[in-house]
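Still learning. Show one?

>
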Amino acid sequence: MNNINTRSGLILKKGLVLILFLCSVFMLGSCKIYSFTGTTLSSDLKTITIQNFVMNTAGGPANLTLNFTEKLKEYYQRNTSLKLKPSDGDLFLEGSITGYELTPVAATASDKAALNRLTIRVDVRFVNTKSEDESFEKEFSFYQDFPQEQTLAQVEGSLVPKILDQLVLNIFNDTAAQW
Protein backbone atom coordinates (compact mmCIF):
# COMPACT_ATOMS: atom_id res chain seq x y z
CA MET A 1 0.00 0.00 0.00
CA ASN A 2 2.83 2.36 0.91
CA ASN A 3 4.55 1.59 -2.42
CA ILE A 4 1.40 2.58 -4.36
CA ASN A 5 1.13 5.94 -2.51
CA THR A 6 4.79 6.70 -3.22
CA ARG A 7 4.41 5.81 -6.89
CA SER A 8 1.24 7.89 -7.38
CA GLY A 9 2.87 10.82 -5.53
CA LEU A 10 5.85 10.61 -7.86
CA ILE A 11 3.60 10.51 -10.94
CA LEU A 12 1.67 13.51 -9.58
CA LYS A 13 4.91 15.49 -9.07
CA LYS A 14 6.17 14.64 -12.57
CA GLY A 15 2.82 15.66 -14.05
CA LEU A 16 2.90 18.95 -12.15
CA VAL A 17 6.45 19.69 -13.36
CA LEU A 18 5.43 18.89 -16.94
CA ILE A 19 2.40 21.19 -16.72
CA LEU A 20 4.52 24.04 -15.32
CA PHE A 21 7.11 23.52 -18.06
CA LEU A 22 4.49 23.57 -20.82
CA CYS A 23 2.85 26.69 -19.38
CA SER A 24 6.24 28.44 -19.30
CA VAL A 25 7.01 27.50 -22.89
CA PHE A 26 3.58 28.67 -24.02
CA MET A 27 3.84 31.98 -22.19
CA LEU A 28 7.33 32.71 -23.51
CA GLY A 29 6.38 31.71 -27.02
CA SER A 30 3.40 34.04 -27.07
CA CYS A 31 5.39 37.10 -26.02
CA LYS A 32 7.24 39.55 -28.20
CA ILE A 33 10.91 40.02 -27.66
CA TYR A 34 11.12 41.76 -24.30
CA SER A 35 13.87 43.34 -22.30
CA PHE A 36 13.98 44.84 -18.84
CA THR A 37 14.15 48.33 -20.37
CA GLY A 38 10.73 47.75 -21.92
CA THR A 39 11.86 47.52 -25.52
CA THR A 40 10.35 45.07 -27.96
CA LEU A 41 13.07 45.40 -30.57
CA SER A 42 13.88 42.41 -32.71
CA SER A 43 17.30 40.87 -32.17
CA ASP A 44 18.23 41.47 -35.82
CA LEU A 45 18.15 45.25 -35.26
CA LYS A 46 21.68 46.42 -34.48
CA THR A 47 21.97 50.09 -35.47
CA ILE A 48 20.01 53.33 -35.46
CA THR A 49 20.47 56.53 -37.43
CA ILE A 50 19.08 59.72 -35.88
CA GLN A 51 19.30 62.70 -38.20
CA ASN A 52 19.53 66.20 -36.76
CA PHE A 53 16.04 67.58 -36.31
CA VAL A 54 15.37 70.91 -38.00
CA MET A 55 13.40 73.96 -36.89
CA ASN A 56 10.26 74.61 -38.94
CA THR A 57 8.67 77.17 -36.66
CA ALA A 58 9.39 80.56 -35.19
CA GLY A 59 10.36 80.98 -31.57
CA GLY A 60 12.14 78.81 -29.10
CA PRO A 61 15.71 78.75 -27.89
CA ALA A 62 18.41 78.80 -30.56
CA ASN A 63 19.73 75.39 -29.47
CA LEU A 64 16.31 73.68 -29.28
CA THR A 65 16.82 71.30 -32.23
CA LEU A 66 20.33 70.38 -31.10
CA ASN A 67 19.17 69.67 -27.54
CA PHE A 68 16.25 67.59 -28.79
CA THR A 69 18.38 65.53 -31.18
CA GLU A 70 21.00 64.87 -28.49
CA LYS A 71 18.35 63.84 -25.96
CA LEU A 72 16.97 61.34 -28.51
CA LYS A 73 20.41 59.87 -29.19
CA GLU A 74 21.26 59.59 -25.51
CA TYR A 75 17.94 57.93 -24.66
CA TYR A 76 18.29 55.26 -27.35
CA GLN A 77 21.89 54.56 -26.39
CA ARG A 78 21.01 54.30 -22.70
CA ASN A 79 17.89 52.14 -23.14
CA THR A 80 18.72 49.84 -26.06
CA SER A 81 21.70 47.92 -27.36
CA LEU A 82 21.47 49.75 -30.70
CA LYS A 83 24.63 51.45 -31.95
CA LEU A 84 24.39 54.94 -33.41
CA LYS A 85 25.36 55.05 -37.06
CA PRO A 86 25.62 58.27 -39.15
CA SER A 87 23.64 56.71 -42.02
CA ASP A 88 22.00 53.47 -43.16
CA GLY A 89 20.93 52.30 -39.70
CA ASP A 90 18.46 49.46 -39.27
CA LEU A 91 16.21 52.06 -37.66
CA PHE A 92 16.03 55.64 -38.92
CA LEU A 93 14.61 58.75 -37.23
CA GLU A 94 14.32 62.24 -38.64
CA GLY A 95 11.99 65.15 -38.29
CA SER A 96 11.39 68.75 -37.44
CA ILE A 97 10.12 70.91 -34.64
CA THR A 98 6.94 72.36 -36.11
CA GLY A 99 5.49 74.24 -33.18
CA TYR A 100 6.67 76.34 -30.27
CA GLU A 101 3.51 77.95 -29.01
CA LEU A 102 2.53 80.00 -25.99
CA THR A 103 -1.23 80.07 -25.31
CA PRO A 104 -3.35 81.33 -22.43
CA VAL A 105 -5.40 78.75 -20.55
CA ALA A 106 -7.69 78.79 -17.50
CA ALA A 107 -9.19 82.28 -17.65
CA THR A 108 -9.98 84.14 -14.45
CA ALA A 109 -13.10 86.17 -13.62
CA SER A 110 -11.43 89.29 -15.04
CA ASP A 111 -10.82 87.58 -18.41
CA LYS A 112 -7.09 87.25 -17.75
CA ALA A 113 -5.24 84.00 -18.16
CA ALA A 114 -4.53 82.32 -14.83
CA LEU A 115 -2.15 79.96 -16.60
CA ASN A 116 -0.10 80.04 -19.75
CA ARG A 117 0.80 76.93 -21.71
CA LEU A 118 4.00 76.25 -23.61
CA THR A 119 3.49 73.56 -26.26
CA ILE A 120 6.19 72.01 -28.46
CA ARG A 121 5.21 69.97 -31.54
CA VAL A 122 7.50 67.61 -33.41
CA ASP A 123 6.91 65.82 -36.71
CA VAL A 124 8.77 62.49 -36.79
CA ARG A 125 9.48 60.08 -39.61
CA PHE A 126 10.48 56.62 -38.37
CA VAL A 127 11.69 53.85 -40.67
CA ASN A 128 12.33 50.27 -39.61
CA THR A 129 14.29 48.75 -42.51
CA LYS A 130 13.72 45.20 -41.24
CA SER A 131 9.95 45.56 -40.76
CA GLU A 132 8.42 48.25 -42.99
CA ASP A 133 4.96 47.87 -41.42
CA GLU A 134 6.34 49.40 -38.20
CA SER A 135 7.46 52.58 -40.01
CA PHE A 136 5.40 55.76 -39.60
CA GLU A 137 5.18 59.53 -39.89
CA LYS A 138 3.54 61.13 -36.89
CA GLU A 139 3.21 64.36 -34.93
CA PHE A 140 4.09 64.35 -31.24
CA SER A 141 3.33 67.22 -28.90
CA PHE A 142 3.60 67.95 -25.23
CA TYR A 143 3.06 70.99 -23.03
CA GLN A 144 3.72 72.47 -19.62
CA ASP A 145 1.59 75.10 -17.89
CA PHE A 146 2.96 77.96 -15.81
CA PRO A 147 1.40 80.79 -13.78
CA GLN A 148 0.42 83.99 -15.55
CA GLU A 149 2.54 85.98 -13.10
CA GLN A 150 5.67 84.51 -14.64
CA THR A 151 7.05 85.35 -18.06
CA LEU A 152 8.17 82.77 -20.59
CA ALA A 153 11.73 84.02 -20.17
CA GLN A 154 11.55 83.20 -16.46
CA VAL A 155 10.33 79.62 -16.89
CA GLU A 156 11.61 78.58 -20.33
CA GLY A 157 14.84 77.13 -18.93
CA SER A 158 12.97 74.70 -16.68
CA LEU A 159 9.95 73.93 -18.89
CA VAL A 160 11.66 73.16 -22.20
CA PRO A 161 13.81 70.28 -20.85
CA LYS A 162 10.72 68.69 -19.23
CA ILE A 163 8.76 68.95 -22.48
CA LEU A 164 11.65 67.56 -24.54
CA ASP A 165 12.12 64.65 -22.10
CA GLN A 166 8.46 63.69 -22.46
CA LEU A 167 8.57 63.99 -26.26
CA VAL A 168 11.64 61.73 -26.35
CA LEU A 169 9.89 59.19 -24.12
CA ASN A 170 6.76 59.23 -26.31
CA ILE A 171 8.80 58.76 -29.49
CA PHE A 172 10.83 55.97 -27.88
CA ASN A 173 7.66 54.19 -26.73
CA ASP A 174 6.19 54.32 -30.25
CA THR A 175 9.39 53.14 -31.95
CA ALA A 176 11.21 50.80 -29.58
CA ALA A 177 8.68 49.81 -26.93
CA GLN A 178 5.58 49.93 -29.17
CA TRP A 179 3.18 50.39 -26.26
In short: The first helix runs from residue 2 to 30. The chain has three helices and six strands.
